[in-house]
Amino acid sequence: MKVIISDTKEELGQSAGAYAAMIIRDTITSQGYANIILATGTSQFETLNQLILEKDIDWSKVTMFHLDEYIGLPVTHPASFRKYLVERFLSKVPSLLASYLINGEGNLEEELEYLAKNIQEHPIDVALVGIGENGHLAFNDPPADFDTDSPYLVVNLDEPCRRQQMGEGWFGSLEEVPLQAISMSVRQIMKSAHIICSVPDERKAIAVKNSLENEISNAFPASILQLHPHCTFFLDKESASLLTAIEIADRNN
C-alpha cells in the first residue's frame, strides 16, 4: 500500500488520473485489453477528469464496470450513478469497448446474476475507488461483509452514508435517499490487480485515519485495502490531516 499526498484536490485528481492511465496503457500493451472499475461521487470528479484528458489510451480495448447504484432510483434522477457515468465518462469516451452499468430498477436477482457473470469473465486490472465518510468501500457500510464471494449484493445503507449523500447535494432531504443499493462486494474489489483510492476533503479525514491506521476491521470497511499488494491512496492535505503513523510514499508540494 502506498499513500500519496497532494496539496489540493485538483492535484490529487491529476496524480490519480495519470497513474490510472499509465496502468491502463501498460495493461493494454501487455495483454491487448484492460478491464476497469470506476467509482462515482464528488470524490472522483478530478480523477475522472484527468483520466479522460490522458492521451494514447485505446479505449476500444477497455471494458468498464462500476461499483454501486441505488435501488429504485430512475436513471434520470440527478443522484443516479448510471447518469453520472454516462455524463461524466461514457459520453466523453465513445469508443469504449463495453460498459456494465448497474440497473437498480428492475428484477434485482436477475441483475445480480447478469453483473456477476460478466465481471467473472473480465478479471479487473485496475479499480478506481473512494471511501465514504463512514469508511465504506463502495456501498459496503459498516459492519461490511468481508466474507461473501458474491461479486455484487444488495446492501442496506446506514444513516451516516445517507446523510453524506444528502450533504453532497444529491438529494434534498434524508427521506429522499434510498435505503438500499446494489454494491460490488469487498472481496470482488480486492480481486483487482491494482486499486487506486482517491479521497479528497477534510470531511473524509477521520475515515482516512481509521482506514489506514486502525487494525483491519469490518467496522472500518476500507481498512481491508491495507492487505492489497498494489493499492495506492491519493489524498490531499485536508483528507490526510489526521494521519500520524503511516509511511508516506510521496508528497507533492
Can you offer a commentary on this structure?
By secondary structure, the protein is an alpha/beta fold. It has a single domain (2-251), classed as Rossmann fold, CATH 3.40.50. It has helices spanning 9-31, 45-53, 81-88, 108-120, 159-167, 186-190, 205-213; strands at residues 2-6, 34-38, 62-66, 68-70, 98-100, 126-129, 152-156, 180-184, 194-199, 231-236, 250-251. The strands form 2 sheets. An 8-stranded parallel sheet has the order 5-3-2-6-9-10-1-11, sandwiched between helices. Strand 9 (194-199), helix 7 (205-213) and strand 10 form a beta-alpha-beta unit. It is globular.
Task: Provide a compact summary of the structure.
This protein has 253 residues and is of the alpha/beta class. It has helices spanning 9-31, 45-53, 81-88, 108-120, 159-167, 186-190, 205-213; strands at residues 2-6, 34-38, 62-66, 68-70, 98-100, 126-129, 152-156, 180-184, 194-199, 231-236, 250-251. The protein has 7 helices and 11 strands.
Number of helical elements: 7
Mean pLDDT level: 95
Spans of at least 5 consecutive residues whose pLDDT stays below 50 are none
Shape: globular
Order of helices and strands: EHEHEEHEHEEHEHEHEE
| CATH class category label | Alpha Beta
Rounded to the nearest angstrom, the distance between the terminal CA atoms is 21 Å
Q: Strand fraction band?
A: 15-25%
Extended strand count:
11
**Largest sheet, spatial ordering of strands:** 5-3-2-6-9-10-1-11
- Indicate the structural class: alpha/beta
Helical content (DSSP H or I, runs of 4+)? 25-40%
CATH topology label: Rossmann fold
Number of domains: 1
